[in-house]
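This protein record is not my work; I was only asked to verify it. Take the sequence as given and treat only the tokens as open to question. I have pasted the whole thing underneath without changing anything:
***
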Amino acid sequence: MKRLPKQEIVIDPLAKRVYEDVVCSMEQYTDDSTLSKFYLPDPLLSHSRLTASIFAQIHYAPLLTHEQAIKSRLFGLLLLSIICGSQIYFKERSVFTNFAPYHIRSDETIVKDVKHRVTKMLFDGATILETTDQVMRLFLDHMVTPRTMRRLGIHDHDFDQEKFDRFMPASILWGYLFAKEMIID
């Protein structure tokens, strides 16, 4: 039997650069801080935590409480994926705008509207660049492993693998779109 040649996946140089910048930011620290540069600014991080909690709650039957969801490993993984999505946007933006400064929206009514818009974009099918999709796939390949999947179970709760397969890419995309909508140039 003849074997087919392995298809080589061509990664866009910009996608590779953005991916490497995000990974590198995980290990970089500001001069006066113990937090890495990878973490989002507080306004974005608090909303990302709430979203990751909601995403984690619905993966289990019976549904988890907010406190149970925050203590789960799935919450940490979903929060990481949301932060990765936001960082992908920030790194892409810095490449395209030559590191131009930005401001983050802080009005709660506007933030609530942004969260609804982003969620609607997810359900309607958001369109993203091929480069961004490649970066997101690189992160998904590293985050979702068989070992990770075994560790997501919780005693007395059934884990929904099908939802997980849909929500992991959606959580990265949610972080990307949320950061994009929250930034004012």
Summary: Helices lie at 13-25, 42-57, 66-71, 73-97, 108-124, 130-143, 146-150, 161-182. The mean pLDDT is 86. Strands lie at 60-61, 103-104, 158-159, 183-184.
